[in-house]
Specification:
By secondary structure, the chain is mainly β. The chain is built from two helices and nine strands, in the order αββββαβββββ. About 10% of the residues have low confidence.
Length: about 140
């Protein structure tokens, strides 16, 4: 999927907790985009709390925005002067968490986070986006 996205736009990706070292992605990255310092790291929170390593990362990098994942829990909140943003998970429903995606609108004066909830049933037409999701192998309906 990354290769397909790279044909359309520049992509910055980081490894997740189930990736091995051969995936080729760093564990964290910091980029400059639209005048903002943006940090990307998979694990920032665990058990509902900012991890010690996550806090150290934020203090070291001092980003305007930090995009993270791992918990599959959508989140948009401030930590000091940094907007922390987890878009959640668009994959199969996990635990009691909602499925969703996130959109960040970066403007000169501010960053606007938006969390978009998706239908919990990935086998049906996604009413939130109007996108027909592919059927699972062997599925007829």
């Amino acid at each position: 999927m990354i290769e397909q996205l790279e044909q359309i736009v520049p992509v910055t990706a980081v490894s997740g907790n189930v990736d091995d070292e051969q995936c080729g992605f760093p564990s964290e990255a910091v980029i400059e985009l639209a005048g903002r310092r943006i940090a990307i790291r998979h694990i920032l929170y665990e058990g509902g709390k900012l991890t010690k390593d996550g806090r150290a990362f934020l203090e070291r990098e001092q980003p305007d925005l930090c995009i993270f994942g791992h918990t599959h829990q959508p989140k948009a909140e401030w930590f000091s002067k940094t907007l922390l943003f987890n878009p959640g998970s668009a994959g199969p429903k996990r635990f009691s968490l909602p499925r969703g995606i996130g959109v960040l609108t970066i403007r000169k004066e501010n960053v606007l986070p938006k969390l978009i909830r998706l239908s919990d049933n990935v086998n049906r037409r996604n009413r939130s986006t109007g996108v027909n999701l592919p059927k699972k192998k062997g599925e007829t309906t």
